[in-house]
């Protein structure tokens, strides 16, 4: 499994385990701006076998795309997911990355297969709610063997887009988000005295963007805590200052909290896996976080805020028809929304048949089994984007990942051959370079952006 951020790591690792329950997935982290820290990975609650290895896309393709026996000097070619591993026939690769990275990986792996390398089965999809750049992101996923749609509605949209472009839509398959479910909501826990009534505001790194809007939401959460001192109000955070997620967070709520004149004592910041937080939640409040779907799947009361409007950049338009759109004013008055059952089914939050515990993953598993049964006979992947269909787009997209228009490494970007000595020297050098890059990307750049807003 290859992931490029904490949320995609969570989706990728859990998807791999759901697709092949008996598997022990090996995780790889794409080296870049959003590479998660060890703390962030731990908070996803989605472990893989062994410590995750950082890699570039070129190195990843080289590792899983070269033929058996073509190991680097001093290395091995055992089929294990170690530093010099190659993919054995029947290997499954879950690409949990942004769209342009997935497209580059598909081209690189397809070229390797045409050159006689192994033909892994490639699975990809979306980490959560798909509310923007639908066609753009979906076309970059074309060429994978399975494109997972998180709901019946998404599957219908995906197939419509592929057919509209004249592309094959056979890879689209419906299955729920892998982190839905969990302990059902216990509405009587507060009445029994097991815990205080808990309201959780699940924040997002980039929604909303402006300081004024983020301060507004923080003040409303604090205002609710003041009105209801017997309740515990939690601000659920995804990252600490300096850490990055899928999206850049230039204005962390931790720092904005210092601007509150009168912080109520029952308002707290909370880190940790979302699943653990939801275990004790009585109301989940958010603008458009996927956490809303996690809460709904457990029957936890869920509020999707309209205070800042219903706008595409906020993503809350995706929840139209859910019955959960509401405002802080109504929350303060304990006028809580109730989700529409039909909407929950159409969005994949609840199964069509609640008595069938296997519903949702059965089709994807069957399709994957069929692909693995004929893995040696599969033709190389065939993405829709080629130098013929997108000559003004594909070369630049591949170049940003170190590949030429045919999917081969650009000069100077090929995975270097070398034995243990070269790897010993290269490892610390790469580590130092990554440290400098992350300092610039995660600390210096956000500071410059904040200065620009003064």
Q: Summarize the main sheet.
A: 7 strands, parallel
Give Rg in angstroms: 23 Å
Oligomer: single chain
User: Could you give the order of strands across the largest sheet?
Assistant: 3-2-1-4-5-6-7
- Structure annotation, total helices: 15
Mean pLDDT: 85
- What is the molecular shape? globular
Count of strand segments = 13
Low-confidence stretches: 71-84, 417-430, 432-439
| Residue fraction in strands | 5-15%
Share in helix: 25-40%
Structural class: alpha/beta
Q: Order of helices and strands, N to C? A: EHEHEHEHEHEHEEHEHEHEHEEHHHHH
**Whole-Å distance between the termini?**
42 Å
Describe what this molecule looks like in 3D:
- The protein is of the alpha/beta class and 454 residues long.
- 36% of the residues lie in helices and 12% in strands.
- The protein is built from 15 helices and 13 strands.
- The chain has helices at 6-19, 38-44, 57-65, 99-114, 134-141, 152-164, 211-227, 253-256, 274-278, 291-297, 328-332, 341-346, 362-373, 394-399, 420-453, and strands at residues 2-3, 26-30, 49-55, 92-96, 121-125, 146-149, 172-174, 198-202, 232-236, 267-270, 283-286, 302-305, 325-326.
- The strands form two sheets. A seven-stranded parallel sheet has the order 3-2-1-4-5-6-7, with helices on both faces.
- Helix 3 runs parallel beside helix 4 and helix 4 packs parallel to helix 5.
- The chain is globular, with a radius of gyration of 23 Å.
- The model is unreliable at 71-84, 417-430 and 432-439 (pLDDT under 50).
């Amino acid at each position: 499994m290859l992931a490029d951020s904490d949320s995609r790591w969570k989706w990728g690792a859990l998807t791999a385990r759901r697709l092949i329950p008996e598997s022990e997935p090996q995780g790889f982290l794409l080296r870049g701006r959003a590479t998660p820290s060890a703390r962030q990975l731990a908070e996803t609650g989605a472990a893989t076998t062994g410590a995750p290895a950082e890699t570039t896309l070129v190195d990843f393709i080289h590792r899983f795309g070269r033929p058996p026996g073509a190991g680097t000097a001093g290395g091995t070619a055992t089929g294990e997911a170690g530093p010099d591993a190659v993919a054995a026939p029947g290997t499954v690769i879950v690409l949990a990355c942004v769209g342009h990275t997935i497209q580059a990986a598909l081209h690189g792996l397809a070229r390797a297969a045409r050159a006689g390398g192994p033909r892994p089965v490639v699975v990809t999809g979306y980490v959560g709610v798909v509310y923007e750049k639908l066609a753009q992101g979906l076309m970059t996923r074309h060429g994978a063997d399975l494109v997972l749609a998180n709901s019946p509605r998404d599957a219908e949209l995906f197939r419509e887009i592929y057919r509209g472009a004249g592309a094959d839509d056979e890879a689209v398959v419906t299955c729920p988000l892998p982190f839905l479910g969990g302990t059902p909501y216990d509405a009587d826990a507060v009445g029994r005295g097991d815990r205080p009534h808990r309201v959780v505001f699940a924040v997002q790194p980039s929604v909303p963007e402006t300081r004024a809007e983020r301060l507004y939401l923080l003040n409303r959460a604090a205002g609710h805590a003041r009105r209801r001192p017997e309740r515990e109000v939690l601000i659920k955070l995804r990252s600490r200052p300096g850490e990055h997620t899928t999206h850049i967070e230039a204005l962390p709520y931790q720092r904005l909290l210092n601007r509150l004149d009168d912080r109520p004592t029952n308002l707290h910041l909370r880190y940790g896996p979302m699943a653990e937080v939801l275990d004790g939640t009585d109301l989940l409040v958010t603008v458009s976080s996927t956490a809303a779907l996690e809460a709904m799947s457990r029957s936890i009361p869920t509020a999707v805020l309209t205070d800042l409007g219903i706008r595409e950049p906020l993503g809350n338009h995706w929840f139209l028809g859910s019955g959960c759109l509401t405002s802080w004013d109504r929350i303060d008055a304990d006028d809580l929304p109730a989700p529409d059952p039909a909407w929950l089914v159409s969005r994949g939050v609840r199964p069509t048949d609640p008595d069938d515990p296997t519903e949702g993953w059965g089709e994807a598993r069957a399709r994957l089994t069929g692909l693995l049964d004929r893995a040696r006979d599969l033709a190389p992947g065939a993405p829709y984007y080629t130098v013929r269909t997108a000559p003004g787009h594909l070369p630049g997209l591949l170049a940003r990942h170190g590949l030429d228009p045919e999917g081969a490494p650009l000069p100077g970007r090929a995975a270097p051959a070398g034995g243990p000595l070269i790897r010993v020297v290269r490892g610390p050098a790469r580590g130092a370079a990554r440290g400098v890059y992350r300092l610039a990307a995660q600390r210096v750049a956000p500071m410059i952006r904040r200065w620009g807003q003064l």
